[in-house]
Amino acid sequence: MVEIKAHEYASLIRREALPYPIIVVFGPDRGLVSERAAELAARTNVDLKDDFSVVRLDANEIASEPAALLDEANSVSLFGGDRLIWIRNATNEKGLVEGLRLLAKHELMATKIVIEAGDLKKSSSLRKAAAEIKLAISIPCYADDGRAIQGLIDEELGSAGLPIDRDARLRLATMLGGDRIASRAELRKLALYCHGAEMIHEEDVINAIGDVAALSVDDAVDAALGGDLKKLNLALDRIESSKISVFVVLRGLIQQFTLMDIMRADMENDGRQLATVMSGRGRAIHFKRKPVFEKALRNWHLSLIRDELKRLEESVFQTRSKPSIEMPTARNALMRTALVSARLANGRR
Question: Which of 60, 86, 92, 90 is nearest to 72 (CA)?
């Protein structure tokens, strides 16, 4: 089996023909998995509207009958021509794994197989089974990084003929990612909202796909990181009144500390300067949030960052196990982070 790198997909899909009759598309971004599986299915030259040529299966349907996959693969289309077997929702089902191992012992005739799977580890039985088949390819799908998000913005807004200014683009980038289909839906919503406009501005992005609660989450995260207790309390009050879960603030703060962990390790272990790591790993941070993040990165040492991450993760567990006191538990955790940030900003350890 050939397993391409995530960034190699673009060149693969541009080929005139795909030389792999078996394709396993997997990863944590289920939207991207679905989108790429559909693109690859369309490249098989099988008429996707022809129910006699396309067999759509859920992985559970062959969980107890491994030979069913081989039987389908060796079947001949009613009117001749190539056939496609499209399997969705695969994980490590025993039947599917054994079915692929049976296929490895036979020659596929005019059948293409596309398998949509979840996040498979290298040690997963499905990936190992696919590796036994020479004419198979495995395609990982991970959450869009900064470059992929920018490409998606250009693709969707470009097709709508809508230019976007720098501030709007930076704000938009912070709202997308994680699921490709969801990101496309948000961009199309923005394009519809701005139809006929000469330029998309930041307020358009906020009005179309952002809301006050979401902005309050950013304010709360930045306030905790920057040691601003008053701003943090105000942001948490708005979040509580908007009925949005305070969990998203804890999650956002954990994401910031996780990024700080990586960047601070570059500084302490590899001797890199703060400006260097900010210009590299910090490029995805919205420019309006960079001053707070950069100041925190300067003040928080690696050991403190890791201790804080453990404490915040424990706070998440507490809010999940005792939902009735979610807000006060989270507020206490966030206030503590803000107090430590303020103390570090004043030169105290």
Answer: 86
pLDDT digits (tens, 9 = 90+) for 146-184: 788 899 999 999 999 999 999 899 888 877 876 788 788
Say what the pLDDT of residue 214 is: 59
Task: Dig out the tokens for 69 from the structure.
Answer: 């996959």
Answer yes or no: do 156 and 127 share one domain. no
Q: Are residues 6 and 33 in the same domain?
A: yes
* Residues 208, 172: Cα–Cα separation, whole Å: 10
Helix (H) or strand (E) holding 334: helix 326-345
Which CA distances in Å does 223 have to 107, 228, 273, 324? Answer: 61, 5, 25, 25
Statement to judge: residues 12 and 127 lie in one domain:
yes
| Among 320, 311, 135, 340, residue whose Cα is nearest residue 227 | 340
Q: With a threshold of 0.85, does the pTM exceed it? A: no
Query: In whole angstroms, what separates CA 173 from the centre of its chain?
Result: 13
The per-residue pLDDT for 165 is 95
Neighbours of 219 (CB within 10 A): 21
Same domain, 309 and 249: yes
As for how many domains the chain has, the answer is 3
Q: How far is CA 130 from CA 22, 102, 149, 175, 190, in A?
A: 8, 11, 30, 35, 40
Rounded-to-integer distance, Cα 263 and Cα 258, Å? 9
Altogether, the residues listed in the chain come to a count of 349
User: Is pLDDT of 18 > 90?
Assistant: no
Burial class (CB in 10 A: 0-12, 13-18, 19+), 126: buried
Q: Is the sign of the CA dihedral 328, 330, 336, 338 positive or negative? A: negative
pLDDT-derived band of residue 287, with 50, 70 and 90 as boundaries?
Answer: confident
Find tokens 């915040």 and name the residue.
312
Look up tokens 């709007």; give the residue.
168
Q: Do 137 and 126 contact (CB within 8 A), yes or no?
A: no
Q: What is the pLDDT of residues 187-237, one digit of tens each?
A: 999 999 999 999 999 889 888 876 555 567 888 999 999 999 998 998 888
Torsion, Cα 96 97 98 102, to 10 degrees, reads: 90
